[in-house]
């Protein structure tokens, strides 16, 4: 069964940190680059970080230096460590295949809400 389950979101003050997790089931997720996407109200979904199976990473300019993506291939889990959070990071965060020339699959999870506010 193909499934993506995101967790770890919440309400945090500006400057705070959160760690998101994505548990993936399905062979495509263990092979392809994986990415974290976010969608803020009224905006399109955007890719913010991506990682290959071998550990190469890529980041959107807006999060570079603040977010770190990692993956545990044995557990089929992808993480996003988010530091120095800003109000503009507020969004629903999703994981899926992506980055490095790979498009997202049709399988989206429910996402996890991140709200940065004082």
- Indicate the mean pLDDT: 96
Structural class: mainly beta
Estimated radius of gyration: 13 Å
The H/E string reads: EEEHEEEEEEE
Poorly predicted regions:
none
What does it look like?
It is a single chain. The mean pLDDT is 96. With 118 residues, this protein is mainly beta. Helix content is 4%, strand content 47%. The strands form two sheets. Strands 2-10-9-4-5-6 form a six-stranded mixed beta sheet, with no helix packed on it. Strands 1-3-8-7 form a four-stranded antiparallel beta sheet. The termini are far apart.
Structural topology:
Blueprint: E1 3-7, E2 10-12, E3 18-25, H1 27-31, E4 34-39, E5 46-51, E6 57-59, E7 67-72, E8 77-82, E9 91-97, E10 112-116
Parallel strand pairs: 2-10
Antiparallel strand pairs: 1-3, 3-8, 4-5, 4-9, 5-6, 7-8, 9-10
């Amino acid at each position: 069964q193909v499934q993506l389950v995101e967790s770890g979101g919440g309400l945090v003050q500006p400057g705070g940190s959160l760690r998101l997790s994505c548990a993936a089931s399905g062979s495509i997720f263990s092979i392809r680059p994986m990415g974290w996407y976010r969608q803020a109200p009224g905006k399109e979904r955007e890719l913010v970080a991506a990682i290959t199976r071998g550990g190469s990473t890529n980041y959107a300019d807006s999060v570079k230096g603040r977010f770190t993506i990692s993956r545990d291939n044995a557990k089929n889990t992808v993480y996003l460590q988010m530091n120095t959070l800003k109000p503009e990071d507020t969004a629903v965060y999703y994981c899926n295949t992506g980055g490095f020339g790979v498009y997202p699959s049709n399988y989206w999870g429910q996402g996890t809400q991140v709200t940065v506010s004082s």
